[in-house]
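Problem 12. The chain below contains 227 residues. Write out its predicted structure in token notation.
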Amino acid sequence: MSTLAHVFEDAGIATIVLASMADVAKKVGPPRVLACEFPLGRPLGKPGDAAFQHQVLRQAFNLLEADEPIFEHFPEVVESDEMPMACSLPPRDDPNAPPAVDEARGLISAYRRAVERKGVTAVGRAIEPEQIPAALDTLHQWAQGAAWKDVELPGKNTVAVCHDIRAYYLEAALELVGDLAPGSRSFDAWFYEVTEAGKTILEARRSLKTQEAPFPFWFYMVAGHLE
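Solution.
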């Protein structure tokens, strides 16, 4: 983000960087930085604490009044409170379906409740919620060695489809556990290590790499810190 700030500034757009990694921001040197000792993935510090978040934003926007480059520290430190995420998954219903497909079908009710309660969803970048099982079926086939050129993925864009699957699981899981707002790494650990969908995405990604599919087609299917 610090590098992008220079790009936007060169285009005449004022920027403010909320920096969780102060040393990196100092090296890159964007003109306005508020260094916040918050857990990665929580740029405003405390989920669900609107007053605290507004305090961070007020201090950040005050940096726009400076006539020269400025680097400030937010006075409060927020320690990471991430706990391993735990969410009970539905039992198998169709033993003839791939495990990930059966699992995704079992989460549809929780997902729909979440959407009805919140009125918004992050699913839909490439596929609709009803297409999640079909997409996982294709990923399962790829994971089993099917040629990626021979089995078409609903939505076609692997990155966007995997985003939709991950969002579907996140929203369904939060509905089941009561919106405890797990950190991103906590959720990713649960998704990729526990769920059949996450395991299938990882296996499909490895298979695509082995098949020498185009690099962007497989590399960006998972979160950046998972290699």
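Discussion. The beta strands are 17-19, 32-35, 70-73. Students who got a different answer should revisit the alignment rule from Section 12.3.
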